[in-house]
Write a structure and sequence with these properties.
The complex is a heterodimer of chains A (472) and B (269). Chain A is mostly helical. Chain A contains 24 helices and three strands. Chain A has four domains: 105 residues, no CATH class; 97 residues, no CATH class; 111 residues; 113 residues, no CATH class. In chain A, 66% of the residues lie in helices and 3% in strands. In chain A, helix 2 runs antiparallel to helix 3 and helix 2 packs across helix 5. The longest helix of chain A is centred in the last third of the chain and has 30 residues. The N terminus and C terminus of chain A are likely disordered. By secondary structure, chain B is α/β, with parallel strands linked by helices. Chain B has a domain of 71 residues. Helices cover 60% and strands 10% of the residues of chain B. Chain B is built from 13 helices and seven strands. In chain B, the strands form two sheets. Chain B has a five-stranded parallel β-sheet. A two-stranded antiparallel sheet of chain B has the order 4-5. In chain B, helix 1 crosses helix 3. The two termini of chain B are 26 Å apart. Classes of the chains: A mainly alpha (472), B alpha/beta (269).
């Protein structure tokens, strides 16, 4: 391995060699320093590959290449090296490598990276907690332990303790409770591992994902609270028909979730169902009930139960939709200015876009020029909506496809194209979190009408290896 | 009788990745056929070639902080044998970005701040456009009837790793590919070898000829991964069923092969 004195000498040579003098000597020195940087960078990357999720040699090579390219660019762009590089070249290379490792970690494990950032924030802003360095490790724990060495990765923590821990709403509270239980500090890396492992085991799933704005249990709980508040507002018969049959994606009764999350007590549920708590206990294990049994309980026909539930659902969907959009706004981190916040409303833009698109559908066949005016109105609305692209991957994909379709249209949109665009916008409004698979199907529908959903110039990417294939 | 069209790799690429430009002419040409099939070999070439370039660039856009950082990576390719097409792609992308930039409304930045800034919006527009192209191409690929499906194609998979899109390609064990049409086409191989000998020498043609000669001289018709890649257009020509028409824009290379095998050929452009 190259020594420090060698590196120092090389740097001095580069620093002393102005661009115009002895270019060949300068090139040789640069080459030498790049080799040196690669060696040091490779060592660091391999040493920390597991902590930073560097899973393959190709990943490691990417990171090292990023570092050496960065240094090469600095050498080439300036006749002299930056001062920090001249003072200590090895540290300079290390810093660049750490940055590249961090970038890699963030790109490959965005959820872990966000979790680590949230924890770091909690440790540096909560007076009960502290973060400090011990050797090469970042250690965390209670503030009174500051500067103590980290203990090993935590021993098994009892499941009930973990569950209790993860039920806390504040990340600071959760880790404070963990350290209170463990009574010794640990590395930040081990803590992230622990929380992720707890998630994967299912015990702490809700809490760990709570740091993810899109799938937070806080939001789920909030959403459940909102749904519950709306259910309570339903007419008694609608409410009973709905609640007795209400099930989640797994087919289990939602009443379980309401009680489990503390959104509603069993007494509150009994009240909502207009039954005695004892009667509710009796039927609890049979929930959700089938329509025949509900009909018998409510003294009506099965069809009446179905109709009641249908109207209850329709009302709930209308009311709960606005909450989904509010959550979406929070997920993209609304601006602080209250004036802007007031108008920070993707649903309002979507509503307007739906109206404009339906105007387009109406006029497409009979008055194509008016329809084109609607297209011109629609384009800036969708461009504005693009600000909310973080709502969901699928949302972003379709929205971008719509923006591109309008931007790259080469002739007036026909009625079929209008119908597909309008349908897509309505779908975005009805279910903004549509997911990527549904988004792909929607893009295919748009493209099948002859519209393009990406800039035409991107097509050249298909040919970047053409010489290798030897095709004409 | 049903009239069948067989797509080669260039046409498959045009249909899947150049859907709104060259793909339009191809679809028009294909509308006169009753049935369209794709040789497994063309899919293998498409996945390991054009689709891989798209996913690579997509992942660069995801991982680089700026769009220009991702385009810089493309620029780096222009120092390799891929330089001409890579330079064209760099220029084309810069044009696209400049055009999108012009259309960006400044009022959005005033209203929404950083999330509407030109650089973040453009980066995401390019990222999402490339992503959409890859995912729709992959979805369309499933709609085709495939002939001569190689084992290594069946194992190919497009999957997500966080925001990244990755292709897992099946690797053919050396000399262990029992699928290829070469196994049942000894007479055709000889015809193709004679036809190839009459064409102008090139590195690609010489490699192909060497494999055909080797296959003609031995009873072993298994091909290694490298030989498989060298055979290229030969594999596609062999996959064209009798009475079917090969649709290709690469007439120069395919004409002698199709002529030798008595198969029809159509250039849709």
């Amino acid at each position: 391995m190259a020594s420090r004195s060698h590196s120092r000498q090389g740097v001095d040579e580069v620093a002393a060699a102005p661009e115009t003098e002895e270019p060949s000597k300068r090139e040789r020195t640069i080459e030498y320093l790049i080799r040196l940087a690669r060696t040091w960078s490779e060592e660091l990357v391999h040493e920390h590959s597991s902590s930073y999720g560097v899973a393959s040699e190709a990943d490691a090579e990417d990171i090292v290449a990023t570092v050496s390219t960065h240094i090469l660019r600095r050498f080439r762009s300036s006749p002299r090296l930056p001062k920090e590089a001249i003072d200590d070249y090895r540290s300079y290379v290390s810093i660049l490598t750490w940055n590249a490792l961090n970038d890699h970690f963030r790109s490959r494990h965005p959820e872990r990276a966000r979790l680590r950032n949230r924890l770091r924030y909690a440790f540096t802003h909560d007076a009960r907690l502290a973060l400090w360095f011990s050797g090469n490790d970042t250690v965390c724990g209670l503030s009174e332990w500051r500067d103590a060495r980290a203990a090993d990765v935590p021993e098994t923590v009892r499941e009930d303790v973990v569950r209790e821990l993860f039920e806390r709403e504040d990340v600071g509270d959760a880790v404070f409770a963990l350290f209170h239980y463990r009574k010794k500090p640990m590395t930040l890396h081990a803590l992230v591992d622990f929380m992720v492992a707890a998630t994967e085991s299912g015990v702490g799933a809700s809490r760990v994902t709570a740091v993810e704005p899109n799938v937070s249990i806080l939001e789920s709980r909030e959403m459940l609270s909102h749904v519950w508040a709306e259910i309570v507002e339903l007419r008694p018969m609608q409410r009973r028909a709905l609640l007795l049959n209400l099930r989640d994606a797994d087919g289990s009764s939602v009443l379980d979730s309401l009680v489990f999350t503390g959104v509603a007590s069993t007494e509150a549920l009994a009240n909502a169902l207009e039954v005695e708590p004892a009667k509710l206990s009796e039927i609890w294990s049979d929930l959700p009930l089938d329509d025949v049994r509900i009909a018998a309980m409510l003294g009506m026909t099965r069809q009446q139960v179905i109709n009641l539930r249908k109207s209850a659902r329709a009302r709930l969907e209308r009311r709960v939709y606005s909450t989904t959009m509010r959550r979406a706004i929070r997920a993209v981190d609304a601006p602080e200015s209250s004036a802007v916040q007031a108008s920070f409303d993707p649903d309002a833009i979507l509503q307007k876009a739906v109206r404009v698109a339906s105007d387009g559908v109406r006029d497409a066949a009979s008055d194509p020029l008016s329809a084109d005016n609607h297209a011109m109105r629609l384009e800036p609305l969708l461009a504005e909506l693009f600000v909310f692209r973080e709502i969901d991957r699928g949302f972003a994909l379709v929205l971008n496809g719509l923006v591109m379709a309008l931007r790259h249209r080469e002739k007036l949109l026909d009625d079929r194209q209008w119908a597909v665009l309008a349908g897509a916008i309505e779908r975005l409004r009805a279910s903004p979190r549509l997911g990527e698979d549904a988004a792909v199907r929607m893009l295919l529908d748009i493209e099948n009408t002859g519209l393009r959903t990406s800039p035409p110039e991107l097509e050249t990417l298909a040919d970047i290896g053409r010489e290798n294939h030897g095709r004409s | 009788m049903k009239i069948t069209a067989v797509l080669d790799t260039t046409i498959l690429t045009d249909v899947l990745l150049k859907h709104a430009t060259r793909g339009v002419a191809v679809r028009e040409s294909l509308s006169r056929f009753d049935h369209v099939v794709v040789p497994g070999y063309a899919i293998k070439e498409f996945v390991s070639g054009p689709l891989t370039y798209f996913t690579w660039f997509h992942n660069r856009v995801v991982t680089e902080k700026t769009l220009s950082g991702a385009i810089d990576w493309l620029h780096r390719l222009s120092r390799t044998p891929r330089r001409y097409a890579a330079s064209t792609a760099v220029e084309a992308l810069r044009e696209a970005v400049a055009r999108l930039e012009k259309q960006h409304a400044a009022t959005l930045i005033e209203r929404y701040g950083a999330r509407a800034s030109v650089s973040t919006v453009l980066k995401d527009q390019i990222r999402l456009s490339v992503r959409g192209t890859i995912l729709t191409a992959w979805a369309r690929l499933r709609d085709y009837s495939i002939v001569d499906v190689p084992g290594c194609y069946a194992a190919a998979e497009l999957f997500r790793d966080g925001e990244l899109l990755l292709i897992r390609e099946g690797k053919c064990a050396s000399g262990d590919c029992g699928f290829w049409p070469v196994a049942g086409a000894r007479a055709s191989l000889e015809l193709l070898r004679t036809a190839m000998e009459a064409t102008s020498p090139s590195r690609e043609r010489d490699r192909r000829l060497a494999v055909l000669t080797r296959l003609g001289e031995t009873s072993n018709t298994s091909v290694t991964d490298k030989e498989c890649r060298s055979l290229g257009d030969v594999m596609i020509a062999l996959s064209v069923p009798p009475e079917a028409t090969l649709v290709t824009s690469n007439v120069r290379d395919f004409a002698p092969l199709c002529e030798a095998l008595g198969k029809r050929l159509l250039n849709p452009y």
